[in-house]
Design brief:
- By secondary structure, the chain is of the alpha/beta class.
- The chain has a single domain, classed as Spore Coat Polysaccharide Biosynthesis Protein SpsA, Chain A (Alpha-Beta Complex).
- It has ten helices and ten strands.
- Strands 1, 2, 3, 4, 5, 6, 7, 8, 9 and 10 form a ten-stranded mixed beta sheet that branches.
- Helix 2 links the parallel strand 2 and strand 3.
Length: 268
């Protein structure tokens, strides 16, 4: 195989996952890639037949294998991706969310860039909402006050501190046209990684159950290679953030934030 992709799911929305897989297939066909697509099912046993039926109904092109990994329980986002990362030795590996749709030329554009720039170890795309608005998922190193404002403050407070939030979201440099090198924090919804970088970092730190595993990996990748935002690579992301997902997700978020700061340094 020339390329591999891992998608971690937990009791997924069937129609959304189907749309994600269809876009992956289209992008692989466009790039003429032989690829292994791993679906890591972190969900309860009751969800396994649903995911299996979805994969069986999904048309596959020659040279593309869709592999389901299940039965391990909910081991967390990063640890789930590691199950696939350790099974493949392709030159490039894509970490992808189950709520993302790729533009047809996304993989072709991304791989062309990586092949032309050997210093690039981790690539992030331009991310859009379903309505076509640019999402600012590339970030500067997060301060505690910025995280609290962005995640949990009332909208009027966020408006008062818009300049600080926009600085964190790199709105002064991230756009639809210019490549940006050495982005401090990249989103785990789409992370294209060079195999040599994965070997150095050993993938995700499984101690991050959910949230901040992508920031942690970004920091560790930056120690051995360069990170880069490439707006010519375009995706649609349908996800939300922790504060809108209930108390359990807020607990995961805070616990992971504390672990991240403990390992990489505190910032206010």
């Amino acid at each position: 195989m020339e390329f591999s992709i891992s998608i971690v799911s937990y009791a997924p929305d069937g129609r959304q996952l189907q749309a994600t897989l269809a876009s992956v297939q289209t992008a692989l066909d466009y790039a003429a890639l032989k690829a292994a697509v791993y679906i890591i099912d972190n969900g309860p046993a009751a969800s396994e037949p649903v995911v299996e039926a979805l994969l069986q109904s999904q048309p596959q092109s020659p040279g593309v294998s869709c592999i389901r990994i299940s039965g391990h329980g909910n081991i967390g986002y990063g640890a789930g991706h590691n199950l696939a990362i350790r099974q493949t030795d392709t030159p490039y590996h894509l970490v992808l969310n189950p709520d993302v749709e790729l533009r047809a030329d996304a993989l072709s554009q991304a791989l062309t860039f990586m092949q032309r720039h050997a210093q690039a170890g981790l690539l992030a795309p331009a991310v859009y909402t379903g309505a076509g608005a640019l999402q600012y998922l590339c970030r500067r190193y997060p301060g505690i006050r910025v995280l609290a404002l962005r995640g949990f403050a009332p909208h009027r407070w966020q408006q008062r501190h818009a300049q600080r939030l926009h600085h964190y979201e790199m709105r002064d440099v991230i756009g639809a046209d210019q490549v940006v090198w050495d982005v401090p924090m990249l989103s785990g919804c789409f992370m294209l990684l060079r195999r040599s970088v994965l070997q150095h970092t050993q993938g995700f730190d499984p101690r991050f159950f959910l949230y901040f595993e992508d920031y942690d990996l970004s920091v560790r990748v930056a120690a051995v290679a360069r990170t880069v935002y490439v707006p010519q690579v375009r995706i649609v992301h349908h996800g939300g953030h922790a504060a809108r997902k209930g108390g359990r997700h807020i607990q995961y978020f805070i616990r992971s934030a504390l672990r991240f700061y403990h390992h990489h340094g505190w910032a206010w």
